[in-house]
Design a protein that fits this description.
Layout lengths: L7 H19 L12 E6 L3 E7 L9 E5 L2 E8 L17 E8 L10 E5 L2 E7 L3 E7 L5 E7 L6
Length: 155
């Protein structure tokens, strides 16, 4: 008689693969997202956050950009640029309304946010709050307010 060791991890992986195959063949999602989802990248520099949104064929007037102390929301509409007399046979990006939101770790100066749309790329610069108010409190209750350079706005 031969002794065969049972490997539960191998059995579970086999079951998972079978379930994946069953669900992928049963439930197909060709249009999983009903709205456009332009590519978004956010970089951080010491002075600001820079967001770039690739929105080819978007109308610059359709953008609605809202800056919050710790984030940004961008919405708009992408309309396909139809070639006259041609039929679209393949396309990698969706058209329609979209909304993209993100949060950042450092407070931004919402009064100094700048946006530019050029060649299908929306670039939004979100300057970080560079000054914070430091208050020295004396024991008798009088306080002295001074401005001090600081990038830590949570103090």
């Amino acid at each position: 008689m031969t002794l065969v060791r049972w490997n539960p991890a191998q059995e579970i992986e086999s079951i998972r693969q079978e379930l994946d195959r069953a669900f992928s063949s049963t439930f197909t999602y060709p249009n999983r997202e009903s709205s456009a989802a332009p590519v978004l990248q956010v970089w951080e520099t010491p002075e600001a956050y820079v967001a770039r949104l690739v929105a080819i064929d978007a109308d610059a007037d359709s953008f609605d950009i809202e800056a919050f102390p710790y984030g940004l929301a961008i919405s708009g509409k992408i309309s396909p640029n139809v070639l006259e007399g041609a039929k679209l046979v393949y396309g990698d990006y969706r058209d329609g309304d979209f909304t993209r939101k993100f949060r950042v770790a450092t407070q931004i100066d919402t009064e100094a946010v700048a946006a530019d749309y050029d060649n299908g790329v929306l670039t939004v610069t979100l300057p970080k709050v560079s000054r914070s108010r430091v208050v020295k409190v004396a024991l008798n209750g009088n306080s002295d307010t001074t401005e001090q350079e600081s990038t830590d706005t949570n103090a």
